[in-house]
Amino acid sequence: MVIDWLAILSLLPILSVAVLLVGLRWPASRAMPVCYLVAVGLALFVWKVEFVQVAAASVNGLVVTGTLLYIIFGAILLLNTLQESGGLAAIRRGFMGVSPDRRVQVIIIAWLFGSFIEGAAGFGSPAAVAVPLLVGLGFPAMAAVMAGMIIQSTPVSFGAAGTPILVGVNNGLSGDPAVLAYAESIGKTEWYDFLSLIGTHVAVLHATAGTLIPLFVVAMMTRFFGKNRSFAEGLKIWKFALFSAFAMTIPYVALAYLLGPEFPTLFGSLIGLAVVVAAAALGFLTPKPEDTWDFDAKENWDEEWSGTLKINVDEGKNPSLLFLFVAWIPYLLVGALLVITRFPPVKGWVTAWTVEFPNLFGTEISSSFQPLYLPGSVFVVVSLATFLIHRMSFDGYIRAWVTSSKTLVKASVALIFTVPMVQVFINSSGGASGFDQMPIELAEGVANLAGGMWPIFAPFIGGMGAFVAGSNTVSNMMFSLFQFGVGQRIGADPTWIVALQAVGGAAGNMICVHNVVTASAVAGLIGQEGTIIRKTFIPFVYYALFAGSVGYAAVAWNAHNSIVNLGSVVALFIVSLAIYMIAKYGRNSNTAQ
Would you say 370 and 355 are in contact if contact means Cβ atoms under 8 Å apart? Predict the structure, then answer.
């Protein structure tokens, strides 16, 4: 009973976020200070954590906040630099040349280009790159943020060259005797091979759930931001959406199986990007010109759709191929530098300069960051290069810096309380009460209720971890060993349960508070974070439930050779519902063949 009450109490910080931010629609700048106080109150008076530990966790959160603000500033600076140089207008016209259809554009930019940035840098970087690019192309700011958040699912587990697996799951499991014994019992004597096995399970789960993500993006975009507010207008492009999904997920799974966790997202997205852009340029499966879908005139948009990020796009003439290439050079440089700085020996050089704050206030909590390794540094460097490459005027470049600085100030208030709340929540162990940290107590309570149905719940625990921690990697660190133990307790293959944790942790990025705050800040959309989470919660539930059902079916098959089980029934229902919706609303789609 104590554990049950602890689970309920542990839920309060998350519940306060949901009620204030999503339910009451408070802006994050108002809601998150209250949520921070809830977490601090629980830590001090229920968990009886020492005040210095709470203070240390809060300071650590402020350090992380500073790195996030740096990334936000760099992303906005690069966008404003391109706007001042005229490169953004050329990029917009170039995309119109590939396809003027906004549904095609959002799949290419958010799903494929965003996945590539995730594979290279991770940690919310797609929002810092793809979201402002979509805004620059004429998308409503809220539509751009929603799309940028939804795609932060399938690519995330192998983001930053596999960090959530190679760091998150690795640190969560390594050294535990039960895990090492199990790995040896299945013939995985090399630890990397054991991680790769989990990574392959993760890839399979992501590929099944991720197949519908591009279709989710376009259907929700047309439903919430289209003139006719229609899901059907998004579903009509189902052929192109599924083609774009498979173009990434098929090589993604193959790379996970053949090469390990470092490469599925990075190279799977590149392969998909090359295939899909070439296909779209040839008109393969794209709408005919008369069926092109676009947003309504801007004056008819709802007021809450638009952010403070103002983009002036000169339609003008179509750019020459040379000028279009020059316009794209900054984004090509971003991708190249993110990839280069993530691989040794360059990574060792850029991470050599580390700013450290060890043992804050005498506690075991330490904080550090590596300025040259942060994506914000890449954005600033590329902005300076753009000033030279695009031969900008000095006055125009100064305007880009001034505008970006003003935007940053508005984003800072929410993050200053959001990240410290997370740090207090996850650093709540070691108090006089003897309770484990809040996330573990909450997970234990859910596990006791779920019993043998745990595989379906496992992704939701991973998602909860990412929701509060803001990171798939941190969620995996917190919960991988716990998930492994639950798997053994219920007689399931624990590698599948850990894989479900990793997949749920990736999906949790869709609703992660500080990722939403960051993406909203980049788009100049401050104060609408709760509205965005209400929208992204729909695909999150789909993703976690479908992955959990497939995982349950896989566990049941391994244990009992049983095809018909709760997991397979739920998964079949979801697939059947998707087929029904496509058949009903997508059959009249007129696409070029």
Answer: yes
Which residue shows structure tokens 């992204």? 536
Distance (Å, whole) CA 313 – CA 90: 9
Element (H, E) at 356: strand 355-357
Strands 367-369 and 355-357: antiparallel
Distance CA 71, CA 408 (A): 10
**Rounded to the nearest 5 degrees, what angle is found at the Cα of 454, between the Cα atoms of 449 and 460?**
95
Give kind and range of the element (H or E) at residue 273: helix 264-281
CA distance 549 to 540: 14
Q: Which element (helix H / strand E) includes 424?
A: helix 394-426
pTM over cut 0.70: yes
CA distance 279 to 286: 9
Element (H, E) at 461: helix 454-469
| Lookup: tokens for 200 | 């392959």
Rounded distance, CA 15 to CA 514, Å? Answer: 16
Q: Which two tokens stand for residue 445?
A: 């309570």
Helix axes 454-469, 494-507, angle to 10 degrees: 40
pLDDT tens string, the chain, 593 residues long: the values are 444 788 889 889 888 888 887 788 888 778 889 989 999 999 999 999 999 999 999 998 898 888 878 877 887 788 788 878 888 777 777 777 788 899 999 999 999 988 987 886 666 667 777 888 888 888 999 999 999 999 999 999 998 767 888 878 887 787 778 889 999 999 998 888 999 999 999 999 999 999 999 999 999 999 999 999 999 999 999 999 999 999 999 999 999 998 888 889 988 998 999 999 999 989 899 998 888 999 998 888 988 888 766 665 554 455 565 577 888 888 788 878 877 886 778 888 888 888 889 989 988 888 888 888 887 888 899 999 999 999 889 998 999 898 888 777 766 777 788 778 878 887 888 889 889 888 788 878 888 888 889 999 999 999 988 887 777 887 888 789 889 989 988 889 999 999 999 999 999 999 988 788 878 887 878 778 888 999 999 999 999 999 999 999 999 988 777 788 899 999 999 999 999 999 888 775 445 44
Q: How many CB atoms lie within 10 A of CB 325?
A: 13
Cβ–Cβ under 8 Å, residues 414 and 517: yes
Q: Exposed, middle or buried: residue 547 (CB in 10 Å: 0-12, 13-18, 19+)?
A: buried
Nearest Cα to Cα of residue 152 among 195, 160, 226? 160
Element (H, E) at 357: strand 355-357
Three-class secondary structure of residue 388 per DSSP: helix
556: three-class secondary structure by DSSP? helix
The phi, psi pair for 356, rounded to 5°, reads -120, 145
The closest of 270, 268, 275, 276 to 158, measured between CA atoms, is 268
Considering only CA atoms, which of 65, 12, 57 is closest in space to residue 416? 65
472-505 as b/e: b if 16+ CB within 10 A: bbbbbbbbbbbbbbbbeebebbbbbbbbbbbbbb
Neighbour-count burial for 134-171, b at 16+ CB within 10 Å, e otherwise: bbbbbbbbbbbbbbbbbbbbbbbbbbbbbbbbbebbbe
Beta-carbon contacts of 318 under 8 Å, excluding residues fewer than 6 positions away, are: 93, 97
